[in-house]
Amino acid sequence: MALKDVSVVIDILHPASVAGLGRPLILVAGDAVKYTEYKGLETLVADFNSGTPTYKLAQTILAQKNKPEVICVATYVGTTPAPGQALGDVLEKYYDKSWHFALLAESTAADRLVLSNKVELHDFKFAVVQVSDKAEIQAFKGNPHTLVYFHTNEEERLDGAVIGDAANLEVGSITWKFRRNLKAVTPIEISPDDLDTVHTAGANAYVTKAGIPQTSEGIVATGEYIDFYHGRDWIKANMETDLQTMLADNDKVPSNTNGVSMVGAIATSVLSTAGKQGIIETNDEDQYAFNVYTQPYDEGTVDEQGKRVYSGLSFDYRAQGAIHKINVRGSVVSGA
Fold first, then answer.
1. How many CA atoms are closer than 13 Å to the CA of 194, on its beta-carbon side?
2. Helix boundaries (H) for 50-94
3. By the 8 A CB rule, do 55 and 49 touch?
């Protein structure tokens, strides 16, 4: 795990609410365990030629308008792996690298479930899977950090196209529904009832609405919205980073009111930025709807004080939603 002195845990309290966290990780079976970051197809092709599923997935990701600046690739041993070489082990080994969305170059249903369940253990980052069988969607139903894409054009990588288009945009600035005109993928033909079944199960699709190819929803496998969880991840990552920086940049953060005020100010700054980005909603006074709470240092336990640990910071916020559907009522007056 990463070395750090700050740990942020975010609990979801229901009812909840109405760039840097966009890098993809491609997991691929191979002969040895390895992790590499590539800045483009020109460097990737040296290790994965243009006919490989890894190259094709990366190509789809990088074909999108909002493509990431780096593609991360981790290799695991798919056949008779030694201890530490299997898919789940390799994901754990490289979990703290700079990726945020994990995809599989090739996979079975069992592989997809391993990926999903392993990411869920951390309650941070995302597993992204593509399925062509509606029945498989149910396997991920309890996993809020899993994005499921139902796509029957099996030679295409809708999962990669969506990540390439949406993940690298400023967190909070977009909804993951309506991602339109994706490159290298075509919309599927599906009836409204079948599409509702896909959504209810916890998956998204790529369809044509009003003549425009677009993602049909923007949900995680539990039915919650992707931007809600991506926003949580942004707050956690930035809160930890900024508090860690504060500890490192100051000769001393005192264990008194001044030190506690410094901690509280960092939390307020992070949440204010989250509000500006659209992660946090505004209240009736047009202020960002969050609260930061700090307790005096000397209210910590004797053990915490002895180890110079401060656990008195907490916060809550109301996440900003988005309009995904519009119902309109109209009336007409007869001219007769």
1. 13
2. 53-62, 87-93
3. yes
